[in-house]
Amino acid sequence: MSDSTKVNADLQRERQKCTFNITELTNVLDGGPAMTEERRRQEEVVLKEGIHVEEVPSEYLSHKEKYELAVKKACLLFKLIRRLQEEENTGMENFRAVLGGSLGSAILQDGSPLTLHYVMFIPTLMGQGSVEQQAYWIGRAFNLDIIGTYAQTELGHGTFIRGLETTSTYDPKTKEFVLHSPTLTSYKWWPGGLAHTANYCIVMAQLYSNGQCHGIHPFIVQLRDEETHMPLPGIKIGEIGAKLGMNGTNNGFLGFEQVRIPRAHMLMKNCQILEDGTYVKSPSSKLTYGTMMFVRVVIIKDMCSYMAKAVTIATRYSAVRRQSQPKPDEPEPQILDYLTQQHKLMVSIATVHAFTLSAEWIWDMYNNVTAELEAGDMERLPELHALSCCLKAVTTADAAECVERCRLACGGHGYMLASNLPVTYGLVTAACTYEGENTVLLLQTARYLVKAWQQAAGGDSLPPTVAYLARRSPPWDCSLEGIVRGFELVAASKISLCVANIEKRQKSGLAYEDAWNMTSVQLAQASEAHCRLFVLTSYFEETERRVKNVSPQLREVMLQLVDLYVVYWALERMGDLLRFTSISERDIEKLQQWYEDLLTKLRPNAVGLVDAFDLRDEILHSALGAYDGRVYERLMAEALKSPLNAEPVNRSFHKYLKPFMQGKL
Amino acid sequence: MSDSTKVNADLQRERQKCTFNITELTNVLDGGPAMTEERRRQEEVVLKEGIHVEEVPSEYLSHKEKYELAVKKACLLFKLIRRLQEEENTGMENFRAVLGGSLGSAILQDGSPLTLHYVMFIPTLMGQGSVEQQAYWIGRAFNLDIIGTYAQTELGHGTFIRGLETTSTYDPKTKEFVLHSPTLTSYKWWPGGLAHTANYCIVMAQLYSNGQCHGIHPFIVQLRDEETHMPLPGIKIGEIGAKLGMNGTNNGFLGFEQVRIPRAHMLMKNCQILEDGTYVKSPSSKLTYGTMMFVRVVIIKDMCSYMAKAVTIATRYSAVRRQSQPKPDEPEPQILDYLTQQHKLMVSIATVHAFTLSAEWIWDMYNNVTAELEAGDMERLPELHALSCCLKAVTTADAAECVERCRLACGGHGYMLASNLPVTYGLVTAACTYEGENTVLLLQTARYLVKAWQQAAGGDSLPPTVAYLARRSPPWDCSLEGIVRGFELVAASKISLCVANIEKRQKSGLAYEDAWNMTSVQLAQASEAHCRLFVLTSYFEETERRVKNVSPQLREVMLQLVDLYVVYWALERMGDLLRFTSISERDIEKLQQWYEDLLTKLRPNAVGLVDAFDLRDEILHSALGAYDGRVYERLMAEALKSPLNAEPVNRSFHKYLKPFMQGKL
Questions:
Q1: Across the interface, which of B240, B438, B439 has its CB nearest the CB of A416?
Q2: Where does the record place it (chains A, B) (predicted)?
């Protein structure tokens, strides 16, 4: 109906309005021009293979067909990565984006059944295997002689690892372990790739030897015959069924009926069972924090990719979509001109910036702490752990809300899978639960905060991220620094109130655990306040640092976004600020006006800001969000791909509808 | 592994703890014992036909197969309803629950392609057809000689009806209308059943006659041949593609290439085109409010069903699930014992009560207004309209949040489709967009509130639901009535601030429309505050009224739930209360303690409260939520239904995985 190479005129106008250099911002977000270049090169190399191209879009396939397509794509993708590794003489870590994040999820929209082989099976072998075990197993795993996964969670137990029921009992007579699932709830449940893909598995089980339980340890178990792929005797294995999203990941269940494995199949870097069954303890168990920290930082970065995707789609769509007629003689405005729409989108853009910079901040901290650890200094480990817990909880929850807000901002068309927003939500909301359920994580941070508070009360010095607990805050002032200091007072006051409440309840006769539980709604909120403060601070400070090296045009916009984010959260948490700071009604009205003015100032740069996320059309995978803004043409083109549209009359007419109409059904 | 008739022991204990008579509460929520009995009878009659039973659960089917299954089920279901109508000599309205709500969505989980025939096609014929048109068309539609749908929304236009582009031009020479789609964006898009199911359609189009446009009018258009079901010439028709949910509804697109229909096919009850093309106007256009009001009240009631489903599932699961070990020597507690979990569930239960009673309140008001209307009195129409707009927005948004909160409260297992929580979310979140996008609706209410405020300022008397705008509120007091009065002050203050902001911006030179737009974030919030106040008030007052006739045991629990709901919202909206009332820090701490005490008091009745929603297992359709609480057995049983589990080795192993492992792919 119109020239197919043309960019939508409204979008073109938006791009002309942009006041800053888009590539410059892309570079800042990537961490420098070299990083942008390398990312783009990888995307180009991977996407030109065309693995992501689907004959029939996967949303039209059955659950089983989705899995089969995922296996095909995952094999082709990993084959490609292997070739590139050889060509470029580099390791797997260089291709992280391909395994997860925006590029990976663009190719394997329903998730990959091979991911756990690379992100859990091999790393666990490396982290927990003895030198001999590593020599033997890592080679086989890298060569793909075997494909593995990692099984910890059980049907009846997730977050609480000590409660796992699978047993591994050492038999000194045969020098074997006997793996067993004593109950239905002890069945392993959830591991990706477990159902029909992996033939080996690292199983976490309660270790028994000489009648004693030594807690959870890792064991390598063969699941399937290497030639025929048939499950081995005593192995009860299958798929756990359809899910909200990620139906290509092949999550499985696994039960054992007295399955015997050699003694050498326990991973023994940290703990050992000697031939006679003697248990030799690990020198330190804190060393596994590293992997967990790494995974959590990766999750935060993934949340940034997903939010960037969602807000790019919604913003471009809002520039193209026109609706209603507030002024009788003027054309319908772009919906991006409505302040309520800007309210939904701008904070989403700012959140991507805020979390990107916070993730880098905590990643630096992690690297410092790791260096200290290697020098034997464990002092900052609890602080880092506490921070990573609440950050994982808050970033995943905010990301889920952000993606849904963007989806709903696209009206009915956001409900179409062709928008790619529902699938993105499926990926993001899953992160609220996996790697530590969010409420549980917030309460873990709260435990640390309560201790830190008591330390501060006792006059002890505090680690940097909780040093504010001991500071006296100045009276409210309506500046960025003033707001951040206000949030310090909020977090400190909330923790202080929690401590007082727990103590009061203990005095009234409750056990500490019950007093804690009765206060836990407030504790989770205090933990969230601590996290908000951290994000606001690190976003603010990192931006101040980075804008020193950028052009004045970009600096202005980056600082406007920080302002917007901080003022947005001040308005969102007005109740806290009113309770704990000296903010006045006049200040609030000033903040509200400041916020509305910022939306207006940022409005002309909205499309430029999402263009700077630099997400290729293949990665966005959205009829609403493509660079050319040809929303309606693309929606129609996608609709025509529905297999239902291949025939003018569906067979159900003859089979059901016509007999029904004729009273003959 | 255990006796399959047994109820989970924890659930059994919960039921023994319940302090009130469950059936008594069921009766209160249904509106009396007779209503409960009738509902149960209908459920029994419909479910015993087994139409809901699926050989392979629909989540494993392809998009196309889901549609075919939906056609089959819908035909069987409507055949059954027809039989029952004849047997019981009653109309369609008696089977509303079967068309929508919890029973309907239990049978047709992916939605029904025939629903619009009954809820839009026939009612529009009745409401907009002339007597002759009704006589001809309604008979054909009831007899199922034809199957219809209703096409209003276009690819480029949703909420803004004046912007629709489809044209219907009268040709006096042939006495026909010519329907045409002048652009891609003018294609009809979204109507349920349009794609492959209906053969007739009511099309809303811009009416042109004698060179003049007369706005949007309804036309009956034949889409497909009655015998062969082939699309007629000039009719471009198909399916719009896969969606987040409701993939059985067969949403379609429809374009016209100069399609001619007889003059008699314009629905002419309200407006007419004479043979020579003369347009004869309708006496009043406000009469269509009735249908819209009815639809919105139905939406609120549906939201109650979905929330009741979600919280029943999550509460029963929380009674069965045990996790963690706060006290070293005690067993793992039920997760329902954690205050954070009670915090997520109890307010969800209270919300079902609150919205159920608010829906009845507005339904009564609607019936009164309709009676007044028929007596020619239109005074309360704007008030009713304003209330229905914000209520639709707030109840759908709250319901979506509630269902997701319940899903996340079930941890990883809530992500399984077998929990039925993801599908429920898909149904609920759709309602945030259809029948009026939520932000647009909130701003419609705001327009009314601003006018009412100006009326009050001018000393005019106000209709009941906005009378609070003229009241002076007493100082804060920490009682239920005190909180509700505090919310009156909040809503009034927010509206007042909006009016002041708009005026200030006008004085600074902005046009009214621009001043409105710049204030619209605040206006939407003011509108939400007005709605919260209404829900709190009507829930509080209706409960006070109803508890007069219930047992003391039930009264206590119902009043605790009202307390919980009101205090919950006071804590949620603490910023507003601090800004606009004289609430003190002491009061806040008192409210927090009150809230925590209420959770503890309600805890023993949690399972009893969800049992009282009286949702049969067939309706819950959830492995996590069944009455017997056999969560893990059911999860495993559901998993085994996955077609992937029918074979020990999937064909993709031979086709991709093995060649990949051997380097031969």
A1: B240
A2: Peroxisome
pLDDT, mean of residues A293-314: 93
* A249 CB-near residues (< 8 Å, 6+ apart): A70, A110, A111, A112, A113, A115, A192, A193
Interchain CB distance below 8 Å, B158 and A579: no
For residue A321, pLDDT beyond 70: yes
Q: Are strands A176-180 and A167-171 parallel, antiparallel or unpaired?
A: antiparallel
Three-state DSSP at A239 gives strand
Q: Which of A198, A196, A59, A195 is nearest to A122 (CA)?
A: A198
Tokens of B96: 């509303």
pTM: 0.97
CB contact under 8 A, B642 and A437: no
Q: What is the mean pLDDT of residues B199-217?
A: 97
Which chain B residues are within 8 Å of A243, Cβ to Cβ? 415-417, 422
The pLDDT of B91-117, averaged and rounded, is: 82
Q: Which of B78, B86, B131 is nearest to B108 (CA)?
A: B78
> If you measure CA to CA, which chain B residue comes closest to A411?
B433
Predicted pLDDT at A2: 45
Q: Quick: pLDDT tens for B406-442.
A: 999 999 999 999 999 999 999 999 999 999 999 999 9
The DSSP-derived string for B553-576 is: HHHHHHHHHHHHHHHHHHHHTHHH
Integer angstrom CA distances of residue A202 from A117, A157, A248:
10, 17, 21
Q: How far is B170 from chain A (nearest CA, A)?
A: 26
Residue A375 and residue A389 in contact, taking contact as beta carbons nearer than 8 Å: no
Give the model confidence (pLDDT) of A464-484 as tens digits: 999 999 988 788 999 999 999
C-alpha A197/C-alpha B502 separation (Å) is: 62
The answer to whether B153 is a known ligand-binding residue is: yes
Cβ-count burial of B92 within 10 angstroms (0-12 exposed, 13-18 middle, 19+ buried)?
A: middle
Q: By three-state DSSP, how is residue B201 classified?
A: strand
pLDDT digits (tens, 9 = 90+) for A581-639: 999 999 999 999 999 999 999 999 999 999 999 999 999 999 999 999 999 999 999 99
Distance CA A344, CA A403 (A): 10
Structure ipTM? 0.97
User: Residue A156 pLDDT more than 90?
Assistant: yes
Of A263, A272, A152, the C-alpha closest to A201 is: A152
Q: Which two tokens stand for residue B93?
A: 């309205």
Assign B1 a pLDDT band (cuts: 50, 70, 90).
very low
Q: Is the pLDDT of residue B285 over 70?
A: no
Amino acid at B336: L
Q: pLDDT at residue B92 above 70?
A: no
Q: Which residue in the set B75, B241, B324 is minimally distant from A657, CB to CB?
A: B75
Mean pLDDT of B15-38: 96
Active site residue: A435, A437, A596, A633, which one? A435
Q: Answer yes or no: do B632 and A190 touch at CB < 8 A.
A: no
Q: Could you give the C-alpha distances from A52 to A55, A58, A550, A617, B74, in angstroms and in order?
A: 10, 10, 36, 12, 37
Measured between alpha carbons, how far is A332 from A322 in angstroms, rounded to an integer?
6
Q: Of A34-43, A96-105, A506-515, B620-629, give the lowest mean pLDDT range.
A: A96-105
Best of B62, B345, B638 to disrupt the A interface (most A CBs within 10 Å) is B62
A102: Cα within 13 Å, side-chain hemisphere: 26
Closest chain B residue by Cα to residue A63:
B60
* DSSP string computed for A452-475: HHHHHHTT----GGGGGGGPPPPP
The answer for residues whose C-beta is within 8 angstroms of residue A24's C-beta and 6 or more apart is: A550, A551, A554
Query: Which of A72, A521, A575 lies nearest to residue B575, judging by beta carbons?
Result: A575
What are the distances in angstroms from CA B454 to CA B301, B449, B487, B492, B500? 33, 9, 20, 12, 11
Q: Report the pLDDT value the prediction gives residue A1, as an integer from 0 to 100.
A: 40
